Amino acid sequence: MDLELLVLGDEGWGDEMLRAALVTLMVSLTAMGIGLFISIFGTLSKLSNKFYVRLIADVYTTIVRGIPELLVIYLLFFGGSNAVMSVAKLFGYHGYIELNAFVIGAIAIGAISGAYSTEVIRGAFLAVPRGQIDAAKSVGMNKFVIFARILIPQVLRYALPGLGNVWQLTLKDTALIMVTGLVEIMRQAHIASGSTYSPFTFYITAALLYLILTTASNTIFNSAENWANKGVRRA
User: 66 CB contacts (<8 Å, ≥6 apart)?
Assistant: First the structure.
C-alpha cells in the first residue's frame, strides 16, 4: 500500500478521496430524508382500511425490496431521462437530456430506503400496545394528543434500531450510483486506481472511509436509542 498516493494537494489523491466521502455522506443524508418522507405515506397506506391503498403500498415495497438495488438505479436513471426527453419532444426539443447524477442517485436510493423504512415504521406502529390507545381514549384524549404523546414517542423508540440498519444500507448503497457518473467514494477509488495502477491502495482507502462513516453512524444511533429508552425497564 503506497501511502504517498494519499497525500493532500496536487501530488496525491487524499483531498479527492475526502471530497468523495463528503459526496457519499451528502447523497446518503438526502436519500435517507427522501426515504423517511416516502415511508410516512407508505406506513399510513399500509395501515389504511382501504384495500386499494394498501395494495399500492404493498406493490411498492414488494417490487423495490424484491429486485436488485442496482436495477432500481438503472430504471430510474435511464427511465427518467427517457421520460423527460419524451416530454421535451412535445415542446419541439429532440436533443439528449441527461438528468443530474446527484439528484437521480439520491432519488433512486431514497426510493429503496423508503421501502425498507416503511416496513420498519409499520412494525413499530403495530408494536405499540393497543391497550394504551384505548386507555388514552377513555380519559378523553383526542386523536392529535394520542398521536403526539403516545404513538410518536413509542414508535420512535421501537423504530430506531431498524432505521439504523436502513441508514447503514443506504450509506453502502451509494457505492452503486457510481454507474451514473457521480464521483463518490467508489467512483473516485476506481478513477484513482486506474490512473496510478495501484488499486489495492485506493480500494483499501475506500473500505476505511466506509468503516469510519458506518462506525460513526453506529455511535450516533446507539446514543439515540439510549436516549429514547430512558426510563424504560428492560427485560
Answer: none
Give the angle subtended at the CA of 210 by the CAs of 180 and 21, to the nearest 5°: 55
CA distance 57 to 199: 43
Terminal alpha carbon distance of the chain: 48
Q: Is the pLDDT of residue 87 over 60?
A: yes
How far apart CA 163 and CA 124 sit, in angstroms, is: 10
Question: Taking the domains of the chain in order of start, what are their residue ranges?
Answer: 25-183
Examine the pLDDT at 98 and tell me if it is beyond 80: no
Distance, in Å, from the CA atom of 169 to the CA atom of 8, rounded to the nearest integer, reads 30
Higher per-residue pLDDT: 168 or 230: 168
Residue 97: pLDDT above 80? no
State phi, psi for 224 to the nearest 5 degrees.
-65, -40
Residue pair 204/193 in contact by the 8 Å Cβ criterion: no
pLDDT of residue 18: 94
CB 150 within 8 A of CB 136: yes
CA 90 vs CA 82, 85, 93, 125, 216: distances in Å = 13, 9, 7, 45, 48
Classify domain 25-183 by CATH number. Answer: 1.10.3720.10
- Angstrom CA distances, 3 to 6, 26, 194, 211, stand at 5, 26, 16, 18
